[in-house]
Input
Amino acid sequence: MVKYPNGLEANFPVKKEQATKRLSFSDRGMTLEEQINESNEYYLEKQIAVVHKKPTPVQIVKVDYPKRSKAVIREAYFRQASTTDYNGVYRGYYLDFEAKETRNKRSFPLKNFHEHQIVHLENCLKQQGICFTLIKFTTFDRYFVYPASQLITYYRNPKLKSIPLTEIENSGIEISCGYRPTLPYLDAVDSLIKDRKK
Amino acid sequence: MVKYPNGLEANFPVKKEQATKRLSFSDRGMTLEEQINESNEYYLEKQIAVVHKKPTPVQIVKVDYPKRSKAVIREAYFRQASTTDYNGVYRGYYLDFEAKETRNKRSFPLKNFHEHQIVHLENCLKQQGICFTLIKFTTFDRYFVYPASQLITYYRNPKLKSIPLTEIENSGIEISCGYRPTLPYLDAVDSLIKDRKK
Output
């Protein structure tokens, strides 16, 4: 695409899907993780919330300390995380969530979750944390905040392999992609907090 | 030291310091990090709180995927953390803290803290988190929960290089080493929560 100095783009024909995507801001080619990180940066900057992604846990075995340059890790292994990926604080509330995406169109497969993530969410719920999962249906570019309590009920039912989209539409809260923040998921969190107070 | 099959140790003369340490449970040769991790495991197991140490942030550059064995990280670098080391949830409260030790006898040097840790604590306080630092004076084997608000006041005063022990004794809450948990720091957190409600 040609960009002119005044910032306008050359008016080439655009496929319908692209055009729609641009209008709704959409994911702009970002991964779900990038979208969440960008939103968290916005929330932090505006002093709305403090939420960070936890670093990938790594077991470090060998480190070189070359002269006049920084330490290099030469042997390390990925470790299993014992928590979810994101946590933080918002208006006095502890937030804890995991982000997942699926290409499925009608349901969200439960095999996307690991036992330790579910156990961690159960533990945080017992401590009155606001716990949820942020689910993206990539095919439709749809995003949902889905309460951890519901997720756990489905996960703990050995007969179920997935959560139907209709159930996620009913019990979850859909998020519309925005510009800033990219994914205004705290609007949905406000609803979770309200529901809890009832 | 010789260990006999019945679990008793040979009765060699023990230095006075060692004997005293054993009586007070003390650190049993553990690092401060190990003491906190062990306490957090206890709190988790007893469903008292969910607090985890964040993994060391690492920038991964090169990963090998050998056949029939797990992925090996062959080149990676330590990154600067943007938060403190510990956070979690306790009775609905968001907890956030950093643990530090000093060999000093009369004061705690402020150079032990990095700007980003202070900024992070400031941000979390604004979101009504319970924020503090867990300070160990290694020489005396004394442990304190010291409120982040006080720490920030000292850190932000360019004339001050350290926090006097007397101030930490006054504004902080001393923790006695225990058996389980090793460092019952949540007792001190209860006081912080009470103070905030006043």
User: Anything to note?
Assistant: Confidence is low (pLDDT under 50) at residues 1-23 of chain B.
